[in-house]
Design a protein that fits this description.
The complex is a heterodimer of chains A (about 950) and B (about 350). Chain A is α+β, with helices and mostly antiparallel strands. Chain A contains 31 helices and 33 strands. Chain A folds into 4 domains: about 150 residues, Calcium-transporting ATPase, cytoplasmic transduction domain A, CATH 2.70.150; about 170 residues, no CATH class; about 210 residues, Rossmann fold (3-Layer(aba) Sandwich), CATH 3.40.50.1000; about 190 residues, Calcium-transporting ATPase, cytoplasmic domain N, CATH 3.40.1110. In chain A, the strands form 6 sheets. Chain A has a 9-stranded mixed β-sheet with strand order 14-33-32-31-15-27-30-29-28, sandwiched between helices. The longest helix of chain A is centred in the last third of the chain and has 41 residues. Chain B has about 350 residues and is α+β, with helices and mostly antiparallel strands. Chain B starts with a helix and ends in a 15-residue tail after the last helix. Classes of the chains: A alpha+beta (about 950), B alpha+beta (about 350). Chains A and B meet through helix 10, helix 26, helix 30 and helix 31 of A and helix 4 and helix 9 of B. Chain A: It is found in: Endomembrane system; Membrane.
């Protein structure tokens, strides 16, 4: 569905699109009660409890006072309703604050100050420096003469650097007054949630300038919740408003994750329910038979001769009510309560505070702590997760000469410095590419020093290195770029930027030397994205060797290249590029295709090598967790050699001969198939040997394997404890998570960057590292931690304790309910199967609410083994992984225990109190205190 | 000096306050870090063996003492429901018991086996009588028992809430089916005094049954259940009723009838003259008369002693078994080689 937006024309868009009124509220005052109740009652457990509570209103069958069920039921409902209402009220308040913010808006040519909620599609919104953007805008004017403005997008994608935004070509140079009266049509797709894409067209209407279609991209927009920085003012046309903005569309409550423990509890509840039905049917039938044969003879009971039609149902229903306590009404509430406490323990943990940034760990999702202990696969990102993501330029290879060695960086290499001073053209070119071919924005701090703001750590490292080698990027002003080299200032005009995408794996800029007027293409990118496009005469062998050598050292490599472009060629290509950039369909793909046409016959200048250090404690953490039976997969966008080196250095895989690395590669289906089968065969043979076998696969082969040989690959995934997937895209990461989940494995995905978000959201547990690539991953994740090494503590300590405690608490809840229920059942055998309740309402309530709920809370701070022991013997986690503490057989144990305890308590309380002399209230009290003592004993025994 | 002293005490108070605060902060810190002090008893084999042994050593003597006490209680149980029906009515007991024109007196002779020390408690015992039946248990109104006619909601008493259109006091099936056999005890032609006061719980008499509440319109219906009550005696003094209204937990139960407050010697023969009014024949229930002395543990009850001895001896056996196992397969404490993944 396309949108046509008429700029500055209120009438046409008035009713078509919603106003800029944010609403994140789930309820309104009117529909809160019915909607909330409906939501709560859509859960089976609640329906069951409601049915029981309703049945209890029928005094003929109720064994106890209905208040004993209605009270807790209403309490539980009130608690969850209050929680919802409170959350909703807070959302309402924040909405209101955003909605009532005042902004300058041009309506029908007049600039007015209105509330943000009255902005309509097509209005022109004016923003001043440091203003928050109220809705999605297409930029049409800024204070900058070049039509550039800077925005901070941290709230949107978590990236803290400044991004440049451009006004579309058609609006370039329009003056202040004209902007008030501008008219035009913007054609753009309907609202979506892709914050990296906006494929639109702008056509200004006469009398305004030409009638040309001007393409719009995401670079021409400023999105809701961003902040305008370093720019005096900017204005734009509202294209998406209210809940239809990019941010509004990405919002939404994620699906609640269900833990394995929850699923098991649900299953067990179902089993108990079936058991209860069986008991009810058996006892009900027996009760009816007894009534007809025996009770009619007991004159003092005075059974009426005539009875209504429902008489046969009365006794079974009475038993249903007696047995209804088998399913503890409080289990959900108390589990929610203790789970949020576990989450708090994670937040509070001093040992998981990042010492560098002082960020504590945080559990966003409070409901899945116990799943941490059942993780079987950890899928980890490399850069920023295992490594520090602090890039340092270490070595380079320019024109076949290697600079930098074990003793020192390239930056201090005398040879390189000499080459620079002597003005070797290759070296100068090399440095120019380093300084120019990037998206880094230099900003002057108050002290006069230049700060670089970069999206990519690699680029920042390169620019810094270039600066230290006397090629200083000084200023970037719209399309003019200034470089200071040995005291002289060089100016370049950036004609076109061919952006980096994960498919192209390279970026290029087309620049014009302002001095000489020569146009050249500067490229940098991964070796396989650059070297194949080298011009025919060039020998690339040395570069391949350099790349090989550097990646053996675990360094990240980039190849730099350039070529001169003729004016004609550029003009011709420029038209195609423009056309491709203004297409609405498949724009990314078309641009890539067009870029390809320019990026050929490159002269390869050299290779840079950047070091990314491992984080502290990574090898130990991986080793410990692997001992705990957790399988590790590394998914990285980096190249194979680098990935393998990092993997070796952090204990991911063992070196030969203990370990063996099998690789799956190939470019065509057949090749991939063959190598997959070969690897699979080796895997099958070696599973019995105590050998660490891992496989390596690259993105290309993975794509084919997932598409055509899914079955074989799945088998491989099951067999292999370790895998390295390199060159994978974000969606492939998510696909791999999906694959493992489909084999019923519990997966944990850990990452730090925006490219990990999808895998983090897909996995059973998503862990984000609040690292240097912004907070995007941490925000999407269930848990955010400061450093990779905290994962060990998160899983072994918090996960394990949570699992143990939840397993105990849930089974104990059933145990104590069953205990009292069995006594009721036994008593019904000696009370003529008439459904008499041995206990009165008050004692039942006290038992459930007071005696059994409070003492057991001790278990939430119970530790079966000390943290040190668990860390020393991570193998103990096997128990949790296999779910040995909560499964049908342990539950059967608890069931048997409650049966046994009920028999003991019942027999003793009947007999000890001199058999015939016992009277009901005495027996009930003795039995009740028996139950209380027994369950207290159980709690004391089970907690350590 | 005064001032200084005041100062120091104020300082002390501040210091104490700070120390309390810091202690609180410390406890909170320990709580948040899950580091609260804890004791972790390790269940080593020797610990377990000792515990079980100790349990056995303590339980067996207790059990033996209890058993002995229970055996010292002398109990005479005499079933009389069949014997008290004249021969000619034995074929149709129900019609005999329901026939209100016949005077149903009957005599029993009890021989005292051993010397019985006063007080001797008299119980009647009914078998196969479901006082715990749901219909029966629910059919009472505690408000009415305390406040009489002032509480007029007697729906819980159904089906015996009223007769002839007027509410009955006390209402309900329990009161309506009041036990009404009576007993007289004669030893060597002199009647033994039976004390029938204080047989019900004091709290029941004082707080549950009204002192101003008199039976009204009771047993006036077409279908008469059990005994009737003297309308001039308030409910709080109708102790037979109070005893009866405490429903029994089991279908076979004893209820107190009274006390004989003099010793009975061995081989005394006691003649019991009883009125056999209560109908247990229609459902085959037994009626028994019980005379029993008491001990510090109450009446005759072997169960407790047997249970103690049983638990005590089984824990000794368990401890011996564990000890043998431990001696045969000793296992050093904290040996990591036994961990499942190291084997």
């Amino acid at each position: 569905m396309k949108r046509y937006i008429y700029i500055n024309d209120d009438e046409t868009s008035q009713d078509l699109y919603c106003a800029n009124r944010l609403s994140n509220r789930k309820y309104t005052l009117m529909n809160f009660l019915p909607k909330n109740l409906w939501e709560q009652f859509s859960r089976f457990m609640n329906q069951y409890f409601l049915l029981i509570a309703c049945l209890q209103l029928w005094s003929l069958i109720t064994p106890v006072n209905p208040a004993s069920t209605w009270g807790p039921l209403i309490f539980i409902f009130a608690v969850s309703a209050t929680k919802e209402a409170w959350d909703d009220y807070n959302r309402y308040l924040s909405d209101k604050k955003a909605n009532e913010k005042e902004v300058w808006v041009v309506k029908q040519g007049i600039k007015k100050l209105i509330q943000s909620q009255d902005i309509r599609v097509g209005n022109i919104v004016w923003l001043r420096e440091n203003d928050e953007v109220p809705c999605d805008l297409v930029l049409i004017g800024t204070s900058d003469p070049q039509g550039v403005c800077y925005v901070e997008t941290a709230a949107l994608d978590g990236e803290t650097d400044l991004k440049t935004r451009l006004i579309p070509a058609a609006c370039m140079g329009m003056d202040f007054e004209l902007l008030h009266k501008i008219k035009g049509v913007i054609e753009c797709p309907g609202p979506d949630k892709d914050i990296r894409r906006f494929d639109g067209n702008l056509r200004l209407l006469p009398p305004f300038i030409d009638n040309d279609v001007c393409p719009l991209t995401i670079k021409n927009t400023i999105l809701q919740s961003c902040y305008l920085r370093n720019t005096e003012w900017a204005c734009g046309v509202a294209v998406y408003t209210g809940n239809e903005t990019k941010l509004g569309m990405t919002r939404g409550i994620p699906e609640p994750k269900l833990t394995a423990v929850d699923a098991m509890i649900d299953k067990l509840t179902g089993a108990i329910f079936v058991f209860q039905i069986v008991v009810v049917i058996v006892l009900g039938t027996a009760g009816n038979v007894w009534k007809d044969t025996e009770a009619r003879k007991q004159w003092y009971v005075l059974y009426p001769q005539e009875f209504p039609w429902y008489e046969l149902l009365v006794i079974p229903l009475r038993f249903e009510l007696l047995c209804s306590i088998m399913i503890p009404i409080s289990i959900k509430v108390s589990l929610d309560l203790v789970k949020s406490l576990y989450a708090k323990f994670i937040d509070w943990d001093y040992e998981m505070i990042d010492p560098e940034t002082d960020t504590p760990s945080h559990a966003t999702n409070t409901a899945i702590s116990e799943d941490l202990a059942q993780v079987e696969y950890i899928l980890t990102d490399k850069t920023g997760t295992l490594t520090e993501n602090r890039m340092i330029f270490r070595r380079c290879c320019i024109g076949g000469i290697f600079y930098g060695n074990e003793t020192g960086d390239a930056l201090k290499d005398v040879g390189l410095l000499n080459a620079i001073t002597s003005g070797s053209p290759d070296v100068i070119r090399f440095l120019t590419v380093m300084a120019v071919c990037n998206t880094v924005i230099p900003a002057k701090s108050k002290a006069g020093a230049i700060l670089y703001k970069a999206q990519s750590q690699d680029e920042e490292a390169l620019v810094h290195a270039a600066a230290q080698l006397h090629m200083v990027l000084v200023n970037k002003n719209a399309s003019i770029l200034e470089i200071k080299f040995n005291g002289s200032v060089l100016q370049y005009e950036i004609l076109e930027t061919l952006e980096f995408t994960s498919d192209r794996k390279r970026m290029s800029v087309v620049v014009k030397d302002c001095h000489s007027g020569n146009i050249s293409l500067l490229s940098k990118g991964a070796d396989e994205a650059i070297l194949p496009y080298a011009h025919a005469g060039q020998q690339t062998r040395t570069f391949v060797e350099a790349v090989e050598q550097y990646s053996q050292l675990g360094l990240r490599t980039l190849c730099l290249a350039w070529r001169e472009v003729e004016e004609d060629e550029y003009q011709e290509w420029s038209l195609m590029f423009k056309e491709a950039s203004s297409t609405l369909i498949d724009r990314e793909w078309r641009i890539a295709e067009v870029c390809q046409r320019l990026e050929h016959d490159l002269k390869v200048l050299g290779v840079t090598a950047i070091e990314d250090r491992l984080q502290d404690g990574v090898p130990e953490t991986i080793e410990t967790l692997r001992k705990a039976g957790i399988n590790f997969w590394m998914l990285t966008g980096d190249k194979q050699n680098t990935a393998i080196q990092i993997a070796l250095s952090c204990n991911f895989i063992s070196p030969e001969p203990k370990g063996q690395l099998l690789s799956i590669d190939g470019k065509t289906e057949d090749e991939v198939c063959r190598s997959l089968e070969r690897v699979l065969l080796t895997m099958r043979i070696t599973t019995s040997e105590p050998k660490d076998v891992a496989f390596v696969v690259d993105g290309w082969a993975l794509e084919i394997a997932l598409k055509h040989y899914r079955k074989a690959f799945t088998e491989l995934a099951i067999l292999s404890r370790t895998a390295i997937c390199c060159r994978v895209t974000p969606s492939q990461k998510a696909q791999l998570v999906e694959l493992l989940k489909s084999c019923d494995y519990r997966t944990l995905a850990i990452g730090d960057g925006g490219n990990d978000v999808r895998m983090i959201q897909k996995a059973d547990i998503g862990v984000g590292i609040s690292g240097r690539e912004g907070l995007q991953a941490a925000r999407a994740a269930d848990y955010s931690i400061g450093k990779f090494r905290f994962l060990k503590r998160l899983i072994l300590v918090h996960g394990r304790y949570s699992y143990n405690r939840t397993a105990f608490l849930s089974q104990y809840s059933f145990y104590k309910s069953l205990l009292i229920c069995f006594i009721q059942i036994f008593f019904s055998f000696i009370s003529g199967l008439s459904g008499t309740s041995l206990f009165n309402s008050v004692s039942l309530m006290a038992y459930n609410v007071f005696y059994t709920s409070i003492p057991v809370l001790v278990s939430t701070i119970d530790k079966d083994l000390s943290e040190g022991t668990v860390m020393q013997h991570p193998q103990i986690l096997f128990y949790c992984q296999a779910g040995r503490l909560l499964n049908p057989s342990t539950f059967a144990g608890w069931f048997g225990r409650s049966l046994f305890h009920a028999i003991v308590a019942f027999v003793i309380s009947i007999h000890v109190y001199a058999y015939e002399k016992s009277e009901m209230e005495e027996v009930s009290m003795v039995a009740l205190s028996g139950c209380i003592w027994l369950q207290a004993f159980v709690v004391a025994l089970e907690t350590k | 000096m005064e001032v200084e002293g005041g100062n120091t005490s104020a300082n002390d108070a501040v210091a104490r306050k700070i120390s309390i605060q810091s202690r609180r902060a410390k406890v909170f810190y320990q709580f948040t870090q899950q580091n609260l002090p804890a004791c972790k008893p390790v269940l080593t084999p020797s610990w377990i063996v000792t515990t079980f042994l100790l349990m056995g050593v303590i339980f067996i003597p207790i059990g033996l003492v209890t058993l002995r006490t229970s055996h010292s209680v002398i109990e005479i149980v005499e079933r009389y429901d069949t014997e008290c029906i004249p021969e000619k009515f034995r074929g149709n007991k129900v019609s005999y018991i329901k026939d209100s024109t016949i005077l149903k007196n009957c005599s029993l002779y009890l021989k005292v086996p051993k010397h019985m020390k006063a007080p001797i408690y008299i119980y009647y015992q009914l078998d196969n009588y479901y006082q715990n039946h749901r219909r029966y248990v629910k059919s009472r109104n505690d408000q009415q028992l305390l406040h009489g006619l002032k509480s007029n909601d007697t729906s819980s008493c159904q089906p015996e809430d009223s007769s002839n259109g007027l509410p009955s006091v006390p209402c309900g099936l329990i009161a309506w089916s009041l036990f009404n056999d009576t007993f007289k005890f004669i030893r060597e032609s002199s009647e033994l005094v039976v004390n029938r006061k204080n047989i019900a719980w004091k709290s029941d008499r004082n707080h549950k049954f009204g002192k101003q509440v008199y039976p009204f319109n009771f047993q006036n219906g077409t279908f008469i259940g059990g005994g009737s009550l003297d309308p001039s005696v308030p409910l709080s003094d109708q102790e037979d009723l109070i005893v009866w209204m405490r429903t029994a937990a089991l279908p076979s139960f004893r209820k107190m009838y009274g006390r004989i407050e003099e010793d009975l010697d061995a081989d005394d023969v006691i003649a019991v003259h009883l009125m056999n009014n209560y109908n247990t024949y229609s459902f085959g229930g037994k009626k028994k008369l019980v005379l029993s002395t008491s001990s510090w543990l109450g009446g005759k009850n072997d169960f407790l002693g047997v249970a103690y001895v049983f638990v005590g001896s089984s824990s000794i056996i368990i401890s011996l078994v564990f000890m043998l196992l431990h001696v045969k397969n000793p296992r050093p404490y904290g040996e990591t080689a036994y961990l499942s993944w190291n084997r």
